[in-house]
Design brief:
200 residues, two-stranded antiparallel ribbon, alpha/beta, 10 strands
């Protein structure tokens, strides 16, 4: 069973195909009595081999890894103009460092942020920066290890759609978007704090 898409507060069919990076071998070392996975210092990610080996379908609406898009940018220019190309990034990637100064994020109909661990809070700060600093107006999607307990707060920082894993209840996820009826702080979804919205 595939992941299910929640757009705003409804289950939607997803016209977008997420293009994943080819798997690579991860070096494993023993440290402090535990086996841990790690990236070598200075190693770029994704690797150039992963970028070159990623297959980009010739048709359809695609969500490409950012660096794969950049690698094929000229060839994808017309499809981008037709609204067929979107991008996704991991939480450790800095999107603005990989785009030319003249490139607006709003050229993409969709940007997805993928978190590998639900405890990785960078997904929130990246979304806030994309919305507030770069004024991204289109669909901002959360993917990966996204928990229903986080959805309300993901919505507050600017996410508009969420890929819910197949092993999680999509209806619980939708109901969690309404966990709080009247948030105290201002945020992307509701700019003014409660004390400005209420007449006492």
């Amino acid at each position: 069973m595939n992941s299910q898409l929640v757009l705003h507060d409804k289950i939607q069919d997803d016209a977008w195909q997420v293009i994943e990076l080819p798997a690579i071998e991860v070096e494993i070392k023993k440290q402090a009595g535990k086996i841990v996975q790690f990236k070598l210092t200075g190693e770029d990610f994704p690797t150039q081999k992963q970028i070159e080996d990623t297959v980009v379908p010739e048709k359809g609406h695609l969500i490409l890894p950012l660096k794969v898009f950049l690698h094929h940018k000229k060839a994808l220019d017309q499809r981008l103009k037709l609204g067929e190309i979107a991008i996704w990034i991991y939480t450790h990637e800095e999107i603005e460092k990989n785009l030319d100064n003249g490139d607006s994020l709003n050229q993409f109909p969709l940007i997805a942020i993928k978190t590998e661990k639900f405890a990785d809070g960078r997904i929130f700060s990246i979304a806030a920066r994309i919305r507030n600093k770069f004024h991204f107006k289109n669909d901002l999607r959360a993917m990966g290890d996204v928990l229903k307990d986080q959805l309300y707060f993901l919505k507050r920082v600017g996410f508009s759609s969420y890929m819910i894993r197949a092993d999680r209840n999509v209806n619980d996820a939708i109901s969690s978007l309404k966990d709080f009826s009247d948030p105290y702080q201002g945020a992307y979804d509701l700019k003014e704090p409660v004390w400005r919205r209420k007449n006492r």
